[in-house]
Design goal:
Order of helices and strands: HHHEEEEEEEE
CATH topology of the domain at 138-249: Immunoglobulin-like
CATH class of the domain at 138-249: Mainly Beta
CATH superfamily of the domain at 138-249: Immunoglobulins
Radius of gyration: 58 Å
Number of strands: 8
Structural class: alpha+beta
Largest sheet: 5 strands, antiparallel
Number of helices: 3
């Protein structure tokens, strides 16, 4: 029988190596290595993640608190968006109401001005009737009522007057109105005769009425000049002398 010592002795003699240096290697299957590697990587990743959270916790950073704060901020943001939308809608509504109020105010102002003008005309007509009544015994008497002039631009004045015929006339009065405007500018006094000086307004100065006639028009003046006085004269057709005269001083 061959003993173990004899086999070892034989191997040492044949290969020249020591039996102590001999080792047996066992090959493991790759199907076993892959799960072990995955498990090892998972353990390493979990330890790293836990260590990261723990480090943040130690440094004062709390992920849950940050998440809660973010949730609160998002809720506040949504609430502010709703409030902003509501305020914009309210602003639009108020602007619409303001526009309506301004339109109503403008309409009321216009109506007030029209009523004031109508009131002035009624007063003027009342004055005419009073004049006609007082002059009922003066057959055919002519008078000039309410002569006025006001500046409307740098180059123009607007005049207005009322011519009244007293008594109980049965026919119409025919004639014309002449006016003399006395101006003052840097070159001294100037005079403008109407309609001779401004024939464009001659048609407005023609008179034809039975009881009264309102006359309005515009006097063109040089820039920088100022109207100092205005004189109006009523002339009857076929008569040489004036039937009525009235002056207005603006200085």
């Amino acid at each position: 029988m061959v003993t173990t010592r004899a086999v070892g002795r034989k191997l040492r003699q044949t290969f020249g190596i020591s039996a102590a240096k001999m080792a047996v290697r066992i090959e493991h299957s790759w199907r076993l290595k892959i799960p072990l590697v995955l498990i090892l990587l998972a353990l390493i990743g979990g330890m790293w993640w836990w260590g990261f959270d723990f480090g943040q916790f130690l440094s004062g950073f709390n992920r849950s608190e940050v998440a809660e704060a973010r949730a609160r901020l998002e809720a506040d943001r949504d609430q502010l968006k709703e409030d902003n939308a509501r305020l914009r809608a309210r602003t639009t509504e108020l602007e619409s109401d303001l526009g309506v109020a301004r339109g109503a105010q403008s309409t009321l102002s216009q109506q007030t001005l029209e009523l004031q003008n109508e009131n002035a005309q009624i007063k003027e007509e009342l004055a005419v009737l009073q004049q006609l009544f007082s002059d009922s015994g003066k057959q055919g008497a002519i008078s000039i009522q309410r002569l006025s002039a006001e500046r409307t631009s740098e180059r123009a004045y607007r005049y207005s007057l009322l011519i009244v015929r007293g008594g109980k006339p049965t026919d119409e009065f025919s004639g014309r109105l002449t006016m003399q405007a006395n101006l003052m500018d840097k070159n001294g006094p100037q005079t403008i005769d109407l309609p001779a000086g401004q024939p464009d307004g001659g048609l407005a100065l023609q008179l034809k009425f039975k009881y009264y006639q309102r006359v309005e028009g515009t006097i063109s003046v040089p820039p920088g000049s100022q109207l100092k006085s205005l004189q109006a004269t009523v002339l009857e057709q076929g008569q040489a002398g004036p039937r009525a005269t009235r002056s207005l001083n603006l200085s």
